[in-house]
Automatic annotation (TrEMBL):
Composition-biased stretches (Polar residues): 247-276
Organism: Hesseltinella vesiculosa
Protein name: RhoGAP-domain-containing protein
Gene Ontology molecular-function annotations: GTPase activator activity; metal ion binding
Key words, A-Z: Coiled coil, GTPase activation, Metal-binding, Zinc
UniProt key word Nuclease: no
UniProt feature, compositional bias: Low complexity: 203-216, 232-246
Listed GO CC annotations: cytoplasm
Residues of the Rho-GAP domain: 399-588
GO annotation terms (biological process): signal transduction
Amino acid sequence: MGDHESDSHSTSSFVSYTDVEHMTQQLMSTNPFINDATTVSDLKQMLVAEKARSKEMEIKLEKYKALANQDNDKSTLFVEQMKKQLGLNIFYSENMASRLQQTCMDLRYQREQLMRDIEDSAFPVMKNSFQIQLSSLQKDVTDAQHNIEQLNQARDHALEEMILLNTKNAELNEMNNDLTRHVAQREKEAKAFMASTQFIRPSHSTDTSSTSMSVTGHMECLSSPVATTPASSIQRSSSSSSSSTSNTHTQQPRSSGESSSRIFQRSRNVLASINPMQLHKRKPSSDSKIDKPSPIHTLTVPPPLPSHSSPQPLSATTNPFLMPNPGQPTHTFVETKISSESCSACQKFIKRSHEVKCQVCMLPCHVKCIPNLDQPCNTPMTTDAPRMSHSPTGSVFSRDISEQAKLDHQLVPLIVKSCIEAIDHRGLTCEGLYRKSGRATETRALQQALDQQQRLDLMDQNAWPDIHAIASVLKSYFRSIPNPLFPFESYDVLLDATSQETPESAIQNLKAVMNSLPVENLATIRFVLAHLDRVQQHSDENRMVTKNLAMLFGPTLIRHRDEHVDLTDMNRKIHVLDFMLRHLDDLIA
């Protein structure tokens, strides 16, 4: 409020001083000379006016004096306030100066302490302690490197043993499949022959002798030597067959069930008589080959001779199994474990755990019902020599990738595409996928069906229940083709591609190698690698991580012409496939 009044007074003071100056100028501007004509009345009036103005000037001067005194009081008050503020500032400055002096003293002390610490921690003083610590660390590093080398050697040794065992396992599986296939073929021929001759009735002595000679000739054909079967076992089988055939002219014919049971018992004896030393593990070499069984000739069963003494119970028209013809397919039965199926001949439930099933069309049947089976095999089979399932001449398993793809009219061979699609559909979560072997019977049947260029629905779990059999056929296919998926010509360049210093350069080299391959090989490689990537994505369930897949497929997809070089470079091939699976997105980008 006082400030407002001082402002108003200063304003009025300012206006008054201006008015005084203006009035003074007016007085000075008055003409000082008076004419003679001026009257006394005029002079009186002018005097009165001058007195009035003087009075007004005195009043204003009093006001101005009051304002000046008020301004002096305010100035004095302001000076006193400034002196007080200056005293406070001086006090604060003195306090800050003392504190600053104390801080400087503390900093000097800390500086001296730091200098003493630096002098105490100089290199000559700490050298001995550092050398002791360094020696201890170097010893620890040397021990760790030694342990790592031992672990690497143990791992490499285990990998080599595992690969060798897998290779021998595959070879033994192939030998087992060959032996089983040959035994099944002989069982089928012997069974058909015995079924066709057990209803023959002798008419006179000439017929008896001719029939005995015919039976003996056929059984000698059946007992032709096999590469892996001892001669004593073959002779024993031949003699028993001849004696049983000749006895049919003097006694009542036996039932078909007893005949079939005797045949299956003989097959088990043949397998049991194989020398186990022939299956002993041997190191693979270029000059040590696996003995392959010699091809056997399919027996053409002659029609049964007419009997005039008794009616013929079975004929070729009623039972095609007893009377096969070259244009009609026949079954190839093998003894196997059957559960939850019914016999195709009598339509009764199979109660026994072990009966027979056709290895081609998977048709189940009782042993005793085989002569009564009137349903032919739904897969055509020729009467020529049986073809090998692993590497037949001119078969799917003996052609290059590019040749087979061109025959299938697509970039990826049909066998690879069908197997992988089936595994992707229902096998990605199976534990031990590609590590466990499938059932030999189903694997063999699938190989034969694919070898005969059949269009199979591998998605059908009822027809092909064992997913491991499909995986085994896929691995067997990549092992059997003459030129591997990564051709022989790209072997050295492929292994050298991943020996670069940086992963980026290794990826670029692998891309260059893959782009130089034939288009069919490249498409199949991408298809297979994408499938293996999907498999390792489910490793929590199937237990097949990237390293396991590389160990299984590395030596299979990448091969060298020399087996010794293959064994030497085993770890490098595993590393290449492992690197490709880990950087698959960059490779196929």
